[in-house]
């Protein structure tokens, strides 16, 4: 049950219906939009919502679903159902093309993948049948442009050929006669043959009409020109007329046969066009849902509302067109909290909140998706009662308040535990004390009947009653009491203040009037409003503090994450360094043993010859000096200098004996001159060199002196930050990218680029999947469009 009769106009649904009509492709869809109404069957509402939700997903997927030729041919079918009638070619064209759309739609949902994705939409066409033979029969006669095919029958083809031949003969004769008439000055120089009375004629100047033998068919409005059919073409024109009549007779015969063939299929065709109309209707609902960012909430059988981030659809569309946003609201109605009593200042959004709740619930039970956030829930109501606006009636001698009381009567008599009641400005329209008392009594009765509802009011006694009555909860539209501006935010659990005195003071009402009003209203009321104001202020402060705490917590979480990552990196690096050092030590020990054994062997072979022994010992000493750096030549590091690095400082890579000069710092990266080669490294990988480090041997000499040290400077100098793997097999390319990325990470390179080309996209996907799996990779993105776009991947390293 809906109350009152003009419920849709009052709640704003009529405008939603008009928007839906504008989205329909044909009158087939319009028919269902006009019939759309409030439903209270859970299974039916659920099916309609699922259909719309599936079509939204179909639109979002960008699939090639047919949206052309949604013709309404019901008039043609009605005509064809009458015996001894035939349909015109245009009618058959519309039937043919629309049936192709029906078959294409059925074929789309017959695909196993589509059947799994869109089960509710597939079920729509379960009983729809379009005979292929019927389409073939129509296609034999009518082409895709709505014209009758010349080869629709042998006789029609013969007549068409004869007709073309005769028309060609006629044009040649008429052109010859016209040229002669122009040469004699009987016809204007720019004259051309034309049609009059279905016959080809030539224009002749009136004063020369006796010079040309023939039949006058017409004359111009001025009388200066007459249109004559020359005598020599009488027979040809007659032949053409006979052929045209024969063509028409054959055409009618074919169309009659085709109509007779179609007639038995009319019952199946009506089902097919109902299916096409439903698709059009559901599509319009899906388009509206996308415009509103609407979703399918979790549905329950019993009355229930749990809107999260809900917006008023019409307000959303209006603000969207203006480039503005809408403040969403969240509200809940359940068995323990059935009635929400909203209070707050005028123009603060109370009525919008009430209409949002009512309109969304009505839309939902009409099968429309609603603009609510993820996690929203909704139930099914059997009735919705609405009291909003001024309903005074001169004819029925009803005042505004009397009309409100009539509505209250209907609510009390017919509303039950499965009803929703929506009342705006409850109790107004009469003397405040009496109006408030009656409103409280009605509210008590409605609460006793366990109805659900949203009610707006300014009355304090109703706020107090809600505070102490189970089943009713206060709500407030939040207000900035300092700026005296509404925030349009609904807060559940506390009443709101009207801020009447404050607003009067803000708009400049004389001070003495404001003060007098404050005295008249009484200290208790002022104290009550100030308490609400204080609560609002404290809430705003608490929200600001919570926001600051959340911001600090996010920073802390980020720092902890970075610390954990750094610690893990250090542990991994330590393990790698120890493994490498052990390997180098093992190799050095092996070489040393070989050298010692060689020395002993030389001494034995020379039988301890003094010169030979001395020479062997000298070779062993040279080997020792070459392989082991003397303590006097080792870098002696002092206590770290904590001053920030500056251009010109002598720096070294942490853990390495390579030294260079710092050229510049940009963000987290630095440019360093190593042995005459400029290299980009991370600042975190550098440390200031100790005094005298500049006098050390160049990195190149040090590396040559010790094969056990890795020449980091040369590797960094030779490293290029771009790799090209186009044309390579996926496995080979991925192997190169892995090695390339590992080198970049080890050398501290901040950014690299991988050129893989577009192709089928498989190579790009494999490379990016690998990069995203590496914790040292900060981001993966397309190159700039001017430098390759998605044919190259830019990788930022941590």
From TrEMBL:
Keywords: ATP-binding, DNA-binding, Endonuclease, Hydrolase, Nuclease, Nucleotide-binding, RNA-binding, rRNA-binding. InterPro entries: DNA_mismatch_repair_MutS_C, DNA_mismatch_repair_MutS_core, DNA_mismatch_repair_MutS_sf, MSSS, MutS, MutS2, P-loop_NTPase, Smr_dom. Residues 604-651 are annotated as: Disordered. GO terms for biological process: mismatch repair; negative regulation of DNA recombination; rescue of stalled ribosome. Its EC number is 3.1.-.-, 3.6.4.-. Acts as a ribosome collision sensor, splitting the ribosome into its 2 subunits. Detects stalled/collided 70S ribosomes which it binds and splits by an ATP-hydrolysis driven conformational change. Acts upstream of the ribosome quality control system (RQC), a ribosome-associated complex that mediates the extraction of incompletely synthesized nascent chains from stalled ribosomes and their subsequent degradation. Probably generates substrates for RQC. Endonuclease that is involved in the suppression of homologous recombination and thus may have a key role in the control of bacterial genetic diversity. This is Endonuclease MutS2. The gene is mutS2.
